[in-house]
Design brief:
3 copies of one chain form a homotrimer. Chain A folds into 3 domains: 86 residues, Udp-n-acetylmuramoylalanyl-d-glutamate--2,6- Diaminopimelate Ligase, Chain: A, domain 1 (3-Layer(aba) Sandwich); 207 residues, Hexapeptide repeat proteins (UDP N-Acetylglucosamine Acyltransferase, domain 1); 34 residues. Chain A is 18% helix and 27% strand. In chain A, the strands form 6 sheets. In chain A, strands 10-13-16-19-24-27-30-33-36-39-40 form an 11-stranded mixed β-sheet, with helices on one face. At the A-B interface, strand 22, helix 4 and helix 5 of A face helix 3, helix 4 and helix 5 of B.
């Protein structure tokens, strides 16, 4: 499996400084600088951590030209490193067979080179595109379409009528298309609103383990192309997430919210319903957006209730000092009273 | 599938203003006012959003009497709308057969018209009532009882000895009756406390995808009739949720808490253990109740640690200004010092 | 099933005060003091709650010597109580058979006395140790090793190459080894970083329902011996949790964090990435640790952003009064202005 630095340099269109016949046997992270391995360093400070280690070579930006080990200069070292990881660890190959232990309804349409593992289920009128994989325990409900080269890991549920694109990855435990949380109070009990819409997941989306994307009340909940969602995330009915947006673990988005493209929601963020968040927005960890909040393109928000970062940092700073400030205020109150008394006396 | 306004008006006991032969082909939301569809508007402001659209008719409160399209006046327009949604989208019918790919223990009792989908499991001495549905990948463990007309969606686990009522809906990935989180530290390690109680879920409860309800240490964790729980919610051992209470996504309730009837817990709320929350209480999103908190009937709480809404709104307002306040205080401190110096000088 | 107090006293090496032939038929909690049952009271205050009830006997610390019912004195009453619960409720026995409805790859190695329930899956080169249980719907992926006497409850996924120790309990819906959440932005889209590491779960770990432990990007995510994790917890790629640490429900730990031994993370705590938390640390509910936070051994933290408990309690106290403080400051500002005017007049 070892490759020469020459081969690797070609693969990522880099510029090699050092012996091009150096053998590389693995790709690693900076924390594990094992012998024979290549990793990346984005700057001199990180590169210094590799001094005196067994690392065999390092991917660096073009600004770095010298080191005790061979270097490959590239525009984006971390991206080049990810490409090398793929070169050493090609994507898992599935067996492209329909297990005799799978349940496939006669009305379902199964493409070529599809893998259906044991105890997977494909129901009435569902379609699974070429090269896609439905792993054990996953349920593709009736009228669902799955594009091509999509991987549905073990124990995923896609409820009826939902659409999953191509090159999508759904991790184990994901639930797509469960009923949105909609009721009308009739004076005595919560009356269920039928959830008659669906979920549309576009191409190149990846969704982490045990995340849930609810179907729309009417219309569609839409996850646009290239969105990446981490584990244990909740996306409610009728939400729309713009292309290439990133949603970290345990985020919860209430009903009818929209988020633009290239935005980032950090861990445990919560949205009230009907929020409208623009493009290239960043929302910090554990921040909370109240119902109906509108967030312009390019904003960075922190805190709960969330505010623009600069304001919130000042607020956090002031809150840090709030016990101390309270003391100062009490002291000032006494001194002002003192002053008032003195002046009163003068006037008398 | 089209129905006349006359039919629909009868169905919901409303009062029609306009042509009773108008054909209605679908029920929609105000955001998607498609041709041939009916929706609802709770007030003039929302009704105005439908001006000039293709909407065919609108459900309105009795106070609204005029519009460019036919109106049906009703006491509760949203409730009437939900009823019309059911009329156009009847509940899914399952095939009422026991799949040959289901596993049913010989000692289990299966009612009439039950659906057991492929790869569902019903174990020793479990009972599934008439008309109930156990979808693929769901496990009904030994001694569990499931009432009638209950729908257990794909990949639900109900651990041994738990009781599920009638007309219950459990969404995909729900886990009922896993062990409560109980250990005793013995000086070196956490010694597991056996969790020998169960979970009781009463009639008309609905639980969202991937939520977890732990069994009691001893006795029962109880979810009373009509409770609605959203996705990714955690209810710990020995909790009790009162009838018709609503629990939004990602709420976490620690052990031995009780919540009364008709209360609402918004998204990502957290409770420490042994909290006692009354009836008709509202807890705002991301609020946190400390261990042992007692909350009277009718309270509205916000924030973490949670406080009554009015107080917390003032606190949030003051916190918003806290950086500015800090500046004012520092400025006052200087000015007071100045004043003190001046007065000292006078006295000398 | 009834046992005499004499037998029970021997079992836990306690000292009996009262009739050693008293029959005990069950073990209960202090909230349910039923007839014939034994429970524990850690102090006089709790013991008083049992006065006049039907309780048959009580486990107490050595400092308590008198009560209306028989007592067993022990060093740790709650621990003794947990031992008695096990005596009355032995661990569930599984049938130690390989279901004909299980899927076992011919290259897998299955130990003796293993239970494989219907619709469980054990794939290529996986190993399941003696006495372990793989319940229905669980997937043990290729090259996974499971130690001995481990219980994998229904619907658990262990992705390829992960290692599960002995005497481990994984509750329903747990996902071990899904891909870490790693991408590099290439200017247009998020490029996936292959996640080529694994997860190692050591002996005596218990993980709650629907929790997720991601595989490492390279190397291993490690859960050390005796760690206890509650429901709906997220542990990201390359984290390391020290032995006997306790992680409560809905905690989220970002990538490359470490936590020491015997620490406790309360419910809904969130960590940014690369946090380093020491031994015997306690982090309070809903607290948030910012990226890279270092926490010394023995710390107690509260709040978001988290601070040492003593400081944070003062901060919470000051925040509680912040609306009132704001009023005081505004009043002081007016009074200082008044004073300044008066002095100005004097000077003129």
């Amino acid at each position: 499996m070892a490759k020469t630095l020459s081969e690797l340099t070609n693969l990522i269109s880099g510029k090699l400084i050092g012996d091009d016949q150096t053998a590389i046997s693995s790709v690693t992270t900076i924390e594990i600088p094992q012998s024979g391995a290549i990793t990346f360093a984005n700057d001199e400070k990180n590169l210094a951590k590799l001094q005196g280690t067994d690392i065999a070579a390092v991917l660096v930006p073009e600004s770095i030209t010298e080191f005790e080990k061979p270097l490959i200069q590239v525009a984006n070292p971390k991206l080049a490193w990810a490409h090398l990881l793929w070169a050493f660890h090609p994507a898992r190959e599935f067996d492209q067979t329909i297990s005799e232990n799978a349940f496939v309804h006669p009305s379902a349409t199964i493409g070529s080179n599809v893998t259906l593992e044991p105890f997977s289920v494909v129901r009435e009128n569902a379609k699974v595109g070429d090269g896609s994989v439905i792993r054990s325990g996953s349920i593709i409900d009736k009228n669902v379409t799955v594009g091509s080269n999509t991987i549905i890991h073990p124990r995923v549920t896609v409820y009826q009528d939902c659409q999953i694109g191509s090159n999508v990855i759904l991790h184990s435990g994901v639930v797509v298309g469960a009923d949105g949380f909609g009721y009308v109070f009739d004076g005595q009990r919560q009356f269920k609103v039928p959830q008659v819409g669906n979920v549309i997941i576009e191409d190149h989306v990846e969704i982490g383990a045990n995340s849930t994307i609810d179907r729309a009340t009417a219309g569609s909940t839409v996850i646009h192309a290239g969105v990446k969602i981490d584990n244990l995330v909740q996306i409610a009915h009728n939400c729309e997430l713009g292309s290439h947006t990133v949603v970290c673990a345990q985020v919860g988005i209430s009903g009818s919210c929209s988020v633009g493209q290239y935005s980032t929601l950090a861990g445990q963020v919560g949205f009230g319903d009907h929020c409208e968040v623009g493009n290239q927005v960043i929302v910090g960890a554990q921040a909370g957006l109240p119902t109906g909040k509108k967030v312009p393109d390019g904003s960075i928000l922190l805190g709960s209730p969330a505010r623009p970062m600069a304001d919130m940092k000042k607020q956090f700073g002031a809150q840090l000092r709030s016990a101390e400030t309270l003391k100062v205020v009490r002291d000032l109150a006494k001194r002002v009273e003192e002053l008032e008394k003195k002046l009163d006396k003068q006037e008398v």
